[in-house]
């Protein structure tokens, strides 16, 4: 067996299931999960129609899909990047489809990390666990950047940058909702050019943000503005999971530096993860349409508007700049809070320490919980009301 497998820690939701095992809720109220970041809004009708088209399905099911993806899909993604970030990304050399950002973020690490014992992968803390797993399975040592809110990226010492091969960044952030500004991206890009590491920017929450006229900036957008039209050492990921409420479609893309993309493509021809042709057809339509994205964003905005006063009054919670999570400090042990909340109100939240790692005795997720507003509107409002009511007795 791969000796690096022993370094993998239990996934957060396995830990959550173990935490709840044997605990019975004391209420007959319906269970609401606010733990998993799985969008529950309806996907676009045209995606369902495309996937139901017998001709599309026949072509998809009887064809080995191309690893590089159909040219029309890559062109649709290129057009979306142009509309969204005002950048020109060459569809032939700088874009690849991936089977959701999770698959891509992990496999990129396998492709670009050297396997040297001296290798370091820089990642935020707390973080999406795929970043750490990708590092561990290539024998790279994670360096955890405290990121309870804004990542403390400027505090990373020079000796770490000298050994860094890959840097993961997430904006809008999971779980904090923090949106990286141009200054943070510029700092990272400058360091990448100086120390020759690759930046992997996880931007899967980029289309969920509070202020309609202030969309988050992206890594490639900032690189182009810095005079790097080929996005040197910069790779960005996005998907239809959050943007289009299609997590089960497993459809996303990677875009950026063509030198990295070409070698990553060579890796993917062996990886065996080509996107089915019928999924590509539906994905192309989704990237070309913006109306459903605007409507989806408005639904999340209404949820935050309906719940923020309660969360602010109870926890002092702020509205996130992006994504669909609250990330409040509950003032006590987060596992205890999650356990008592489930027992009293039949509501599940994710303890913050499950998303972080303890470094020098400190876990930046401790005493926090991640609350995902993914359920239908009224379910979210009722669940937040019950959560805040229970908090008064738990703390």
Helix percentage: 40-55%
Q: Quick check: average pLDDT?
A: 96
Query: Which regions contain 5 or more consecutive residues with pLDDT less than 50?
Result: none
Helix segment tally? 15
- The Cα radius of gyration reads 21 Å
The proportion of residues in beta strands is 5-15%
Structural class: alpha/beta
Which geometry do the CA atoms define?
globular
- From N to C, what is the helix and strand string? HEHHHEHEHEHEHEHEHEHHHEHEEEH
Taking the sheet with the most strands, its summary is: 7 strands, mixed
Distance between the termini: 45 Å
Widest sheet: strand order? 2-8-7-6-5-3-4
Q: What's the total number of strands?
A: 12
Summarize the structure in words:
This protein is an alpha/beta fold and 395 residues long. 44% of the residues lie in helices and 13% in strands. Helix 9 links the parallel strand 6 (198-202) and strand 7 (234-239). Helix 4 (71-85) runs parallel beside helix 12 (277-288). The longest helix has 25 residues, at 291-315.
Summarize the structure.
This protein has 395 residues and is α/β, with parallel strands linked by helices.
Please render the helix and strand layout as text.
Blueprint: H1 12-20, E1 32-33, H2 45-52, H3 54-61, H4 71-85, E2 95-98, H5 100-112, E3 120-125, H6 129-136, E4 141-146, H7 158-163, E5 164-170, H8 182-195, E6 198-202, H9 219-225, E7 234-239, H10 240-243, E8 252-256, H11 258-271, H12 277-288, H13 291-315, E9 325-326, H14 334-345, E10 347-348, E11 350-351, E12 369-372, H15 377-394
Parallel strand pairs: 1-10, 3-4, 3-5, 5-6, 6-7
Antiparallel strand pairs: 2-8, 7-8, 9-12, 11-12
Helix pairs in contact: 2-12, 3-12, 4-12, 5-6, 5-11, 13-15, 14-15
